[in-house]
């Protein structure tokens, strides 16, 4: 089955270069000017799409000081969920300006909706795709509502179990939507490359017969490049203008030049995959003459015996292949042969 499909101008799917998404998240630091510059930086870095997050503190949680609403470890330890999401959310009244700016820059923009009202809002903006965040993949009514728009869906797995991933995929397919990519994801902020378990990405593709990619929260670009080498069709990574200027997700985000390095190296990794081929490559054609072959390494008179003293396997490769060494040893020379001559069959007497 051909699983390839389009988002904007670009094709996602098997045998395609990885579709690279720059996640803005809360890295705008509540400054729309900064948000616009992140879109510019993404375009300049060569990514295919910028992704927003569409929620408010009130659509994603409630304003409550209970202990279970307190983050107790990691990057945001000690913070209340409501307070964190107030800081991190992208104001809804920015969205149209951001979508319009992306259109002028000729870069695709879409978002992660966190409830049905966000999907309705994004539909009015003609969002070309939807991303279901890793923590929302178990919200099957939300998944269904997004899938029923008919737009392509990208879903991150994060802390979902295999069964929960399967349920979300089934929900999308039951809606009649086949344009789906599942992103393997470790929901650590930042995540440890030692926990990446990238082979899981390939297993997801096989087990569920879906396109698979990576949403990465590790430092650097090594994990996404490795994922591309394993066949990831989508790479998602956070982009910030400057980690030193702070922001809720800046710690595990790439700066613009680093993002450009990511794009270049993922493209190279994809190109390196190539196809199964045992033929000579263009760069090898000239070098094949420097392989080993059988050469005369001491002068031989006509009728002389070919032996270990006057025949060796050496470079270059203009003589008989070394596999014929045992076949020629002990045979007579058909003519005088000078040292440095590549051995050929017409020099060997046929018994």
> Termini distance?
60 Å
| Quaternary structure of the protein | single chain
- Principal-axis shape equals elongated
Strand order of the largest sheet: 5-4-3-10-9-8-7-6
Spans of at least 5 consecutive residues whose pLDDT stays below 50 are none
Please state the structural category.
alpha/beta
Strand content: 15-25%
Main sheet characteristics:
8 strands, parallel
What descriptive keywords fit this protein?
351 residues; alpha/beta; TIM Barrel; 2 domains; two-stranded antiparallel ribbon; 12 strands; elongated
Can you characterise this structure?
The protein is of the alpha/beta class. It has 2 domains: 8-273, Aldolase class I (TIM Barrel); 282-347, Antifreeze-like/N-acetylneuraminic acid synthase C-terminal domain (Type Iii Antifreeze Protein Isoform Hplc 12). The protein contains 12 helices and 12 strands. It has helices at 32-45, 57-60, 81-88, 95-105, 116-124, 140-147, 162-174, 199-208, 222-229, 256-273, 282-285, 325-328, and strands spanning 5-7, 10-12, 19-23, 49-54, 108-113, 130-132, 153-156, 180-185, 211-215, 234-238, 293-296, 311-314. The strands form 3 sheets. It has an 8-stranded parallel sheet. Helix 8 (199-208) links the parallel strand 8 and strand 9. Helix 9 (222-229) packs parallel to helix 10. The radius of gyration is 30 Å and the shape is elongated.
């Amino acid at each position: 089955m051909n699983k390839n499909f389009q988002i904007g101008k670009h094709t996602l799917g098997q045998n395609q270069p990885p579709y690279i998404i720059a996640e803005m998240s809360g890295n705008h630091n509540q400054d729309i000017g900064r948000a616009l510059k992140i879109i510019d930086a993404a375009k300049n870095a060569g990514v295919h799409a910028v992704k927003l997050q569409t929620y408010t503190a009130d659509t994603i949680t409630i304003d409550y000081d209970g202990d279970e609403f307190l983050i107790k470890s990691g990057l945001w330890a000690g913070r209340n969920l409501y307070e964190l999401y107030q800081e991190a959310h992208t104001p809804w009244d920015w969205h149209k300006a951001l979508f319009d700016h992306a259109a002028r820059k000729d870069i695709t923009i879409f978002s992660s909706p966190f409830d049905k009202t966000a999907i309705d809002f994004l539909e009015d903006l003609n969002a070309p795709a939807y991303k279901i965040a890793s923590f929302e993949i178990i919200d099957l009514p939300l998944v269904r509502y997004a899938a029923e728009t008919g737009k392509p869906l990208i879903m991150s797995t994060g802390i979902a179990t295999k069964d929960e991933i399967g349920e979300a995929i089934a929900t999308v397919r039951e809606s009649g939507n086949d344009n789906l990519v599942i992103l393997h994801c470790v929901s650590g902020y930042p995540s440890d490359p030692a926990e990446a378990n990238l082979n899981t990405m390939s297993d997801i593709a096989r087990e569920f017969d879906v396109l698979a990619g990576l949403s990465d929260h590790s430092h650097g670009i090594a994990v996404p490049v490795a994922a591309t080498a394993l066949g990831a069709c989508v790479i998602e990574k956070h982009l910030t203008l400057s980690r030193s200027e702070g922001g809720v997700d800046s710690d595990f985000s790439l700066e613009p030049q680093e993002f450009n390095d990511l794009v270049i190296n993922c493209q190279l990794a994809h190109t390196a995959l190539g196809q199964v081929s045992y033929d000579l490559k263009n760069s090898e054609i000239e070098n094949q003459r420097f392989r080993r072959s059988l050469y005369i390494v001491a002068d031989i008179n006509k009728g002389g015996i070919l032996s270990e003293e006057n025949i060796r396997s050496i470079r270059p490769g203009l003589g008989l292949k070394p596999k014929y060494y045992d076949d020629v040893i002990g045979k007579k020379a058909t003519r005088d042969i000078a040292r440095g001559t590549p051995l050929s069959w017409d020099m060997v007497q046929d018994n």
